[in-house]
Amino acid sequence: MSETVNVDPAELAKFSDLAHHWWDPDSEFRPLHQINPLRLDWIDQLAPLKGCTVLDVGCGGGILADAMARKGAQVTGIDLATKSLRVAQLHALETGTPNISYREISAEALAKESPASFDTVTCMEMLEHVPDPQSIVSACAQLVKPGGWVFFSTINRNAKAFAMAIVAAEYLLKLLPRGTHEYNKLIRPSELALACRNAGLDVLHTRGMQYNPVTGRYWLDGDTSVNYLLATRRPAA
């Protein structure tokens, strides 16, 4: 089988069709622009980015990858959506973002090519869009250096998450395009934690991300019932 088999063509098409909107803060990607500072600060607090080599798996148009590079990291962003990658590359050229590069390659293929090559690996809002999340988690664990950090973010699978992340976000508030998420692909924190442990990662921190539709404000707290982030670490050799 191909090294890039762990991908859903429908998901690639979905994000490719929206590629030209990635850097429009008032587009379908507005929520990503709004939550990016929260994700960035949390990562930087636990694993200071300056001077580190960082891999962003499923980087899309480069919103997080670009921000991490501007914090002083040497960043590589990977994705399998060609149009999104081109948008990311063009944005980096236009804005002069330093120390950043993008590649069209799967996490699994890169793990075989360059194992234990990065101080930090991030995989945000991606696991719920692939057929085999465990494969991605395992690849991330292989890509990070011993002692390095791996960060994930995704959406819980329960009635509240269905109501908030799908019905409200996609249909009522229209924060995201309809069909962005499929309920049966969502991942409970316990399932992701188990996937991390199976891949040899220690789960160290969990945070929930909240949204107030009245004020439009996002924040992090301890409630992981809908959107959540996991900070893990590969044991030092």
UniProtKB/TrEMBL annotation:
<dbReference type="GO" id="GO:0008168">
    <property type="term" value="F:methyltransferase activity"/>
</dbReference>
<comment type="function">
    <text>O-methyltransferase that catalyzes the 2 O-methylation steps in the ubiquinone biosynthetic pathway.</text>
</comment>
<comment type="pathway">
    <text>Cofactor biosynthesis; ubiquinone biosynthesis.</text>
</comment>
<protein>
    <recommendedName>
        <fullName>Ubiquinone biosynthesis O-methyltransferase</fullName>
        <ecNumber>2.1.1.222</ecNumber>
        <ecNumber>2.1.1.64</ecNumber>
    </recommendedName>
</protein>
<keyword id="KW-0831">Ubiquinone biosynthesis</keyword>
<dbReference type="InterPro" id="IPR010233">
    <property type="entry name" value="UbiG_MeTrfase"/>
</dbReference>
<dbReference type="GO" id="GO:0032259">
    <property type="term" value="P:methylation"/>
</dbReference>
<dbReference type="InterPro" id="IPR029063">
    <property type="entry name" value="SAM-dependent_MTases_sf"/>
</dbReference>
<feature type="binding site">
    <location>
        <position position="124"/>
    </location>
    <ligand>
        <name>S-adenosyl-L-methionine</name>
    </ligand>
</feature>
<feature type="binding site">
    <location>
        <position position="79"/>
    </location>
    <ligand>
        <name>S-adenosyl-L-methionine</name>
    </ligand>
</feature>
<keyword id="KW-0489">Methyltransferase</keyword>
<comment type="similarity">
    <text>Belongs to the methyltransferase superfamily. UbiG/COQ3 family.</text>
</comment>
<dbReference type="Pfam" id="PF13489">
    <property type="entry name" value="Methyltransf_23"/>
</dbReference>
<feature type="binding site">
    <location>
        <position position="58"/>
    </location>
    <ligand>
        <name>S-adenosyl-L-methionine</name>
    </ligand>
</feature>
<keyword id="KW-0949">S-adenosyl-L-methionine</keyword>
<keyword id="KW-0808">Transferase</keyword>
<feature type="binding site">
    <location>
        <position position="39"/>
    </location>
    <ligand>
        <name>S-adenosyl-L-methionine</name>
    </ligand>
</feature>
